[in-house]
Design brief:
Number of strands: 13
Strand order of the largest sheet: 1-2-3-5-4
Radius of gyration: 21 Å
Shape: globular
Order of helices and strands: HEEEHEEEHHEEEEHHHHEEHEHH
Largest sheet: 5 strands, antiparallel
Number of helices: 11
Strand content: 15-25%
Helix content: 25-40%
């Protein structure tokens, strides 16, 4: 499904292609730059030209919902600004921040206070997001404030109907679930009551509609969205990690997903070992094993970045694999962390689909 001529003309003149962020049966989403009257700005493009015919009508419906919600949300300062909208493509402003599942704002009470205020502003404007169970739709801005993104399931209301109140309640309940994960000590007694009480609609949805939704998206559409990684991250990555760990030279391994223009979702394996030449050996071993498709990239690192419990910091590796390296700076606690990361960045493999985002990352030189 090609883009209309008007859309093509606008994007050709004003859009600079960048990094592919996501590709599925509903749209392609990429980050780049958009030229406004006042100059170029970082932006995100959603386009429907590579959507398969059998999912196009639903993709078009989701596109229209996002466009309407972003139009109503203009000036609220809680989500991306709608910069331009065509018939099958739209450009929204880029928010300088990191998704909740990557930022992991543990104990950050101020962030969740900001998140509650953001929801309040959305709801006052008659907008319910309806997809806030996903941590990747919550952003921790570089300024520390909360922002929300991906308004494809958003609904716009002209009055505070019963349906609006139910949807707004569920938005709030999903926010509180994330607060319970990252700042449980800050939950108030009232918030705990909300968490314990699903709306009737939510209970019915969990018993009926959600099962149908999963059957359609995972069965018919073959679509799984765990942290944007799809079925390969869910099904193949654990098997591949175990296969990689069987090599005696491997100390540990972690696999993350990245959007790929040719295959949709690619896998990137970071392998903790001493020998850089091990990369080719592992590719051969995995290919010969007749198991899941090997990762598109394997990178040997001297040590994986780890959290206080010793688990690999996949949120950092995810941004490296996606070439979103400018978003790493707020996650670095010291020059030691930056020097450690520089070694990984210098040898990273996914260089075909990247943009010049390195300028904002203050990495020390050796």
């Amino acid at each position: 499904m090609s883009l209309p001529k008007d859309d093509v003309a606008t994007l050709s003149a004003r859009w600079s292609e960048g990094v592919l962020l996501k590709r599925d049966v509903f749209s392609n989403v990429e980050r780049g730059r958009f030229r406004r009257d006042g100059g170029e700005v970082d932006a995100v493009l959603r386009r429907l030209d590579e959507v398969p015919w059998w999912s196009y009508l639903l993709a078009r419906h989701l596109f229209a919902r996002e466009r309407k919600a972003l139009t109503l949300a203009k000036g609220l300062g809680v989500g991306p600004e709608l910069l331009w909208a065509g018939r099958r493509a739209l450009v929204r402003g880029f928010i300088d921040g990191v998704a909740l599942h990557l930022a992991k704002p543990r104990g950050n009470v101020a962030y969740f206070r900001s998140a509650k205020q953001a929801l309040h502003r959305l709801h006052r404007a008659g907008i319910t997001h309806n997809d806030l169970a996903k941590e990747q739709n919550w952003l921790v801005g570089r300024d520390g404030h909360c922002y929300v993104t991906d308004f494809q399931l958003a609904a716009s209301f002209s009055r505070r109907s019963r349906l609006f109140r139910i949807a707004a309640y569920e938005d709030l309940r999903h926010l509180l679930k994330h607060k319970r994960t990252y700042a449980p000590e800050a939950l108030t007694p009232k918030e705990r009551k909300i968490l314990a009480r699903k709306s009737l609609f939510a209970r019915v949805w969990l018993m009926t509609g959600k099962k149908v939704y999963r059957g359609i998206t995972r069965g018919i559409f073959n679509f799984t969205d765990r942290e944007g990684g799809g079925r390969r991250l869910v099904n193949d990555a654990p098997v591949l990690i175990e296969m990689i760990r069987r090599n005696p030279d491997v100390r540990d391994a972690a696999i993350v997903a990245f959007a790929d223009r040719r295959t949709g979702v690619g896998l990137y394996a970071f392998v903790e070992a001493e020998r850089a030449s091990l990369e080719a050996q592992l590719q051969s071993e995995l290919a010969a094993a007749k198991g899941p498709k090997p990762p598109e990239h394997i990178q040997v690192v001297q040590a994986l970045p780890r959290d206080a419990t010793g688990k690999p910091r996949t949120e950092i590796l995810q941004l490296v694999a996606m070439n979103q390296v400018d978003l790493l700076e707020p996650m670095m606690a010291s020059d030691t962390d930056r020097a450690f990361l520089k070694d990984i960045l210098d040898a990273r493999k996914n260089l075909r689909d990247r943009f010049n985002f390195e300028a904002n990352l203050k990495l020390p030189s050796h």
